[in-house]
Amino acid sequence: MTRAGTLGSVPPNSPQASGLRTRIKALIPELGKFGLVGGFAFTVDFVLYNLLLRAGAETLTAKATSTVIATTIAFLGNRFWTWRDGDHTNMARQYTTFFVLNAIGLGIALACLGISHYGLGQIWPALRSPFADNISGVMIGTALGTLFRFWSYRRFVFRAAAAPVPAATPSPSSQ
């Protein structure tokens, strides 16, 4: 029994508690794989972005290029490892959807970078430095884009395969 104004706990054997616990346990390996693939792709993005900046590429062009290459790596890792058991009936649709959603994720990162470098950089010139660009574009932009990507990949690209419907067996009376 709970007093007025307090919340009681959910009993450990309730359907709500066990259902949530089951969903979280199933999500942990998926998040781990997604994180490893994303970490590798992030490293490629980070290193390539900085190489392109040092080679004289424009800030947004460098970020767009590094992100497209990292996205290709992420697609392959997620398709063939993270969600290898998902529904993969139409690879062209899946690849296209993946890249469209990544374009949105790229837009999130570019928006963070653009706001920092070109917007706030007009007020505080220190925000136009490569270090500030890495913080806003690579760290903040990628983090926000990653949250969007995990949700959208799971929902639209690598959906769980539908469980096969068991064939109906004729009843003894219908034979």
Automatic annotation (TrEMBL):
<feature type="transmembrane region" description="Helical">
    <location>
        <begin position="131"/>
        <end position="151"/>
    </location>
</feature>
<keyword id="KW-1133">Transmembrane helix</keyword>
<dbReference type="InterPro" id="IPR007267">
    <property type="entry name" value="GtrA_DPMS_TM"/>
</dbReference>
<feature type="transmembrane region" description="Helical">
    <location>
        <begin position="95"/>
        <end position="119"/>
    </location>
</feature>
<keyword id="KW-0472">Membrane</keyword>
<feature type="transmembrane region" description="Helical">
    <location>
        <begin position="31"/>
        <end position="52"/>
    </location>
</feature>
<keyword id="KW-0812">Transmembrane</keyword>
<protein>
    <submittedName>
        <fullName>GtrA family protein</fullName>
    </submittedName>
</protein>
<feature type="domain" description="GtrA/DPMS transmembrane">
    <location>
        <begin position="33"/>
        <end position="158"/>
    </location>
</feature>
<dbReference type="InterPro" id="IPR051401">
    <property type="entry name" value="GtrA_CellWall_Glycosyl"/>
</dbReference>
<dbReference type="Pfam" id="PF04138">
    <property type="entry name" value="GtrA_DPMS_TM"/>
</dbReference>
<comment type="similarity">
    <text>Belongs to the GtrA family.</text>
</comment>
